[in-house]
Amino acid sequence: MNLTAVIFVAIIAVLASVITAYTMRNVNSFYNSKMIKSSRQPPSFVFMFAWTFLYISYAISFQYLYNEDKDNTYMIYLFSLNMILNLLWVIVFFWGGNLILSQIIIVLLLLLTLYQAYYVYTELDYIEYNYFVTIMLLTYAGWLCIATTLNFQTHYIVS
Question: Residue 115 and residue 54: Cα distance in Å, rounded?
Fold first, then answer.
């Protein structure tokens, strides 16, 4: 893979994370103004660093799959669906304050990410970096487990 492409993807992911973090701190959302947060929730700055790392690793994983000679239309579809669900969760949870729908979305997101990791590991063994991509996807799934737990705890506290 071209080092320039990796750097470009990383810069785009960092810029997206910084813009999201800047926007989120200025939004008077349901989450920031009315919701009681879980006692297990880490400080806000942890989320910014975690999501920046995850967006970068997810983008690099996507780039590895995209650069392959074989047709990876199915994986491109799965990566795109994952990003759409991720964005949808942010909108539903932070701006909409709909905890039940956000739980459904984040569980679907977690299941999709685990399926992606499984698919890359078992079906795309011809890719030189399939182990790396699998580890990146499992790291993302691990963070989604934490986010899912916090989502459920928040719903339990508010209910």
Answer: 17
* Contact indicator for 100, 87 with CB cutoff of 8 Å: no
Q: How many domains would you assign to the chain?
A: 1
**Domain with 21 in it:** 3-158
Phi–psi pair at 46, nearest 5 degrees: -60, -40
Of 153, 156, 130, 128, give the one whose Cα is nearest residue 39.
Answer: 153
Distance between CA atoms of 107 and 45, rounded to whole angstroms? 24
Please write the tens of the pLDDT for every residue from 95-147: 777 889 999 999 999 999 999 999 988 887 766 777 888 899 999 999 999 98
Q: What is the DSSP letter of 27?
A: -
DSSP for residue 70: S
DSSP 8-state assignment for residue 18? H
CB 141 within 8 A of CB 110: yes
pLDDT digits (tens, 9 = 90+) for 84-99: 888 888 888 877 778 8
Q: Which of 141, 15, 6 has the alpha carbon at shortest distance from 63?
A: 6
pTM: 0.77
